[in-house]
Amino acid sequence: MTNLNTKKIPSWCPGCYNFQILAGVKKVIEAKIKAGQKKEDFMVVSGIGCHGKILDYINLNGIHTLHGRVLPTCLGMKVGNPNLTVLGFSGDGDAYAEGMEHLIHAARYNSDFKYFVHNNQVFALTVGQPTPTTEIGFKDKTTPLGVKFPPINPIKLMLASGATFVARVFADVGQIEFVLKEALKHKGFAFIEVLQPCIIFHKDEGYQDKVYSLDKVGHDKSNFEAAWKKAQEFDYNAVEKIPLGIFYQTQKPVLEEQFEQLVELKKKGIGWKNVKR
Amino acid sequence: MRVNILFGGKAGQGANVLTEVMGKALVKQGYYVFYSRDYQSLIRGGHNFNVLTFSEVPVHSNDKAIDILVQLDENTTKIHKKDLKKNGISLVGHTENMYYAGALFKIFGLDFRILETELKALGKKFEENIQEATKGWEDTKTNMQITKVEGKKIRFLDGSQAIADSAIKSGLDIYYAYPMTPATTVLSELAGKQIANNFLTLQLENEISVINAAIGSAITGARAMIGTSGGGFDLMTESLSLAGMIDIPLVIYLSQRPGPATGVATYTAQEDLNTARCSGHGDFPRLLVAPGDIKESEELTNQAFYFAEKYKIPSIIINDKHLGESYYTETESPTMLKIKKLTPLARHSGNETDKDGLTTSDPEIVKKNVDERMAKIELMEKDMKKFETFKIYGNKNSKNLIVFWGSTKGAIIDAMGNLDCRALQILYLEPFPTEIKNELLKAQNLILVENNKKGQLGELIAEKTGIFFNDKNKILKYDGRAFDCDELQKEIKGMLK
User: Does B224 sit within 8 Å of A275, measured CB to CB?
Assistant: First the structure.
């Protein structure tokens, strides 16, 4: 049986929701490998923050890269070899602060990799400072006067930027499995936000009582206006209701299909490394 | 014979095409040609000019004193008339560029049919151009007859083409860049050749994305190269440190222009030696090479790929606007290595990791990792001895030694002529060829020539050898312009012992 465990004992806090994300991702990849995909076909890229340790706990190739640079690294891997399955993992600081410019362009480029944002609405590994998705009024040692600025809404940002797959799930094994399977079926960039409350610095403010499934209420994920409307229900500030699932999915040209050089690599099932000149 | 022609006009008037047509025609007549481009950061209007120098012996620079002044507008007259030699030729009164091509062909007594061929090769506006050229031909008299020089096969290209071609020959797979003068010429050069040579060029949202995408591609085993100028390089440096830590190859083209900040965006300087050598946090190995002409651009680009792949390090080729965007004639072919791809798929991390690629803070492993990384430098120092890491020119027995790096080579070599001096060019700046100390010690009079204010190479030499340059013996130019041969010669003469 395929096992993607490493020798490393996770250093996340006991009970951290990151364990749920890790378990969900591993289950899906292990099943893919069992079904015949090669282990070497997968690449994992993680950024800086608690989430970034995920590569230490998954025995796949990849890189634990710098803060904010997960997206261009994933893009470079797909351009380097379009046949690889590339999974990117970021935190909310990584995705929405340090690497914000890459996020908007990743939606534009539509390269065929899958991107998880572990959004705990706080810089946890640096002991609790506010991020761009922290609610107004949040206080910590660095911000004793409280957060003054409204959080950004990543779902709206991704919809506006032209992303072809926009989803939000809660950090739960089953939900991660579901959304990753769907994202892998999708051709193009998949944006997946995971609500992952930090049990130390940004506790679950009753999120689990407020969430509901878009699928169950008959949301039409091919309808952009409906997706936009649903995206506005949760502004990351006041918690009333939080829709989960796939907000929007559409087909647009994929980066790797727009360059004949890359189409050729895909056809031959190789990366640049094995191009004979 | 050394003839300097200045072509001046507003941006958009076609001084560039005119210079190129004349350059190519003269090269075909067997002449050595060098031309540089002086242009402002604007698209239409302003004042742009090119200076073309040709001779039957090799030329690599222009002179300040002009033999023929081609004036496409009044501004050219106002600005450059003072530099026209007493017996120089003033071509003025017309605004159409090819009028002057006809005039120059007549002056040199060249066959008009050669010009016709060059104009046809432009592929557009032929009728209009030939009409103008005919007028220029008819209006002018021959008074500087030149004859065809036989027997040489001369290549005519700028430094950017040399670097791009060498990258292709070195097995380039992907070139990422964000536009920035003067590095963009390499991007456009490569972009135009990507289909025919089966590689890819990709412009991304900024330089940070560019270097990280290249790191991503390199991890998959692709041969990646990136290009930028000083400001863009600054943005890349955090990731340069990452590239220096993990075991992947990466080639960086850094083309300098005057700084700090935006500086003089379309001009030339050698101000980024320190940043190229020292940037990036932490200790890590890198290669830094500086070509001074076309052949060196080709060979050092190839060697940059060689070291990057073999030692899995970032290799930086430092160049500038002057060499990158000036046209040179080259008669020799470069020596190129074939470089195998050696990078396996693996786990990488910006954190210190153990043998399984897992994050660690164990002091023994941390120390071992640092030692292993830095041991690459020693291996590179040994390996680089098989290449020319520095070169010596001129009178072997002279007590005068001019020391330089990069694009100042052209003006220095031309200016040395029959003067009693030697010159030392340093091509490898990191790792540094400390053997040059012997050459420095042999000389009694050291002269430093650099295109910057601080004398950055001088500082580097002092750091590595303990030998300092006397402030009175530094020829430093930092007005955004390259050295002119005649003016530099005067300065060198004044310092010889």
Answer: no
Instruction: Report whether B210 contacts B178 (CB < 8 A).
Output: yes
Chain A: residue nearest B246 by CA? A63
Instruction: Give B343→chain A minimum CA distance, Å.
Output: 9
A152, two tokens = 């950004």
Helix B230-245 × helix B207-219 angle, to 10°: 30
Q: What is the pLDDT of residue A199?
A: 94
**Cis, peptide link before residue B260, omega less than 30° from 0:** yes
φ/ψ of residue B193, rounded to 5: -110, 5
Question: Which residues of chain A are at the B interface, by a Cβ-Cβ cutoff of 8 Å?
Answer: 6-8, 40, 43, 45, 53, 55-56, 60-66, 69, 71-81, 84, 101-102, 105, 259-262, 264, 271-275, 277
Question: Letter for the amino acid at B401?
Answer: L
Q: What angle do CA B398, B400, B406 make, to 5 degrees?
A: 110
With an 8 Å Cβ cutoff, are A76 and B215 in contact?
A: yes
Grade residue A259 by pLDDT with cuts at 50, 70 and 90. very high
Looking at beta carbons, which residues of chain A come within 8 Å of B178? none
pLDDT digits (tens, 9 = 90+) for B54-105: 999 999 999 999 999 999 999 999 999 999 999 999 999 999 999 999 999 9
Chain A residues touching residue B343 (CB < 8 angstroms): 273
Q: What's the whole-number mean pLDDT along residues B127-152?
A: 94
Q: How far is B351 from chain A (nearest CA, A)?
A: 7
From the candidates B205, B206, B351, which should be mutated to test the interface with A, based on the most A CB atoms within 10 A? B205
User: How far apart (Å, rounded) are the C-alpha atoms in residues B464 and A111?
Assistant: 47
| Digit-coded pLDDT (tens) for B329-341 | 999 999 999 999 9
**What's the pLDDT band for A1 if we cut at 50, 70, 90?**
low
pLDDT tens digits, A207-232: 989 999 999 999 999 999 999 999 99
Residue A142 has pLDDT above 70, yes or no: yes
Partner-chain residue, chosen from B205, B246, B346, that has the shortest CB–CB distance to A102: B205
The shortest CB-CB distance from A76 to any of B206, B213, B345 is to B213
Neighboring chain A residues of B238 at a CB cutoff of 8 Å: 66
Is B174 in contact with A272 (Cβ distance < 8 A)?
Answer: yes
pLDDT of residue A25: 98
* B214–A76 CB contact, under 8 Å: yes
CA distances (Å), origin B51, targets B83, B178, B449: 12, 29, 22
* Cβ within 8 Å of residue B367, ≥6 positions away: none
Q: Cα distance from B241 to chain A (closest Cα, Å)?
A: 10
Spell out the domains of chain B, with CATH numbers in brackets: 2-139 (3.40.920.10), 157-386 (3.40.50.970), 390-495 (3.40.50.920)
Topology at the third CATH level for domain A18-268:
Rossmann fold (3.40.50)
Closest to B175 in 3D by CA, of B150, B204, B135: B204
Is B222–A69 a contact, with Cβ atoms under 8 angstroms apart?
A: no
**B53 three-state secondary structure:** strand
Residue B150, pLDDT > 90, answer: no
Q: Where are the alpha helices (DSSP H) in B253-386?
A: 273-278, 294-311, 321-325, 363-383
pLDDT band at A3 (very low <50, low <70, confident <90, very high): confident
- Residue where the block lists tokens 């592929």: B123
CA-CA distance, B447 to B302, in Å (whole number)? 30
Give the residue among B176, B213, B250 at the shortest CA–CA distance from A71.
B213
DSSP secondary structure code for residue A198 in this structure: B
Q: Which among A45, A71, A79 has CB closest to B202?
A: A79
Stretch (H or E) spanning B355: none
Q: What is the ipTM of this complex?
A: 0.98
CA A21 to each of CA A11, A29, A89, A236: distance values in angstroms, whole numbers, following the listed order: 15, 12, 10, 20
Q: Do A275 and B220 touch (CB under 8 A)?
A: no
